[in-house]
Amino acid sequence: MQAQTIQRRKNLRSARRIPKISPISIASLLFLATIFAFFEQGFVTAMAFLVGASMLTISLLIFYIIFALRLNTRFFEPSLTLAQITVSVTIMLTVFFLDRAVQLALGPFLLVAFSYGVFRLTKTAQNALAAGTMLTYLAIVLGRGYQDDFNGTFRLDLLLWVVIALTLPMTMTVSAQIRQLRSALKNTRQQLLQFEEKAIRDELTGLYNRRQLQTELDLAIAQSNEHDTPFCLCLIDVDHFKDINDKHGHLAGDMILREFSRVARESIRDSDIIGRYGGDEFMQILPDTELKGAVMHAERLRVHAHFLDLKSVLPQKSISLSIGVAQYRPGEEVAELIERADAALYRAKERGRNRVEWIDGD
Fold it and tell me: Which of 280, 309, 342, 360 is catalytic?
């Protein structure tokens, strides 16, 4: 398939790029940084901070190695989002288990972790992770309350747990709505791209239409002038196409145009542009190509078309092409270039058709 303007603008890449340190890992780092600030102010014990820092360092190292060696590609979910969130939540709850004062920072960072997961995890995985997190959180609160004979501190801890337990589902719901909106926008964008693609294509052949060929010609001239590189233009005509239509019908003619278009797409270079200029006439743009090379490409296309098997619609079983080639002259207008290619095409028809003629680029 020839290179396409839309594809060049989109610049699509097939390779997936998954960062070695994800946003959830950064959230864990920020959580530990907050705990360090608490430690510096004397609100958190050194043991709680050191345990959290050690767990985070080890987990980051493990995930980095997994991504660096591309071991993540062996898993059903290559981003390992569920694993990363689980590890992050485990670190937060462990530090909270070691020091109650951490609870001041626990709630906001739990919400951040789950907000990230909503965009990557299934609803079942989200609910399971949220339930496990809140039950573990509650178990820590109840265990600490049991040790302290369920005093006033326990009631405050339980109240904070209730706040997070009520806020977390709301956060997940809002995030899910954002995910649905993003999905809808993505679908709309794809539909717009499809409409744009159809707008530049000839309905019968699937090749570029005349309007898009004009755009491609303008682009080729601009690039040639900017980079001082040659390019050539070919005008291609299916010989005796009007007679074929008159004798065998328009359906046969349409089939011939479609089959030729298919062969043309398969036989040209990726950098070449080909489209239907009108009726049975086609235009080919050959970037970075001088006249001699363009004539060779045109001859190859003519031979490919000659060996098309059309015995189902034509008694002679094949078609022939007349092709006119012209090389762009720096500074000339599009109309002048097309006129010279058309003159070469007319010469090919005068000299018996089924041939390639050219106009010198000097």
Answer: 280
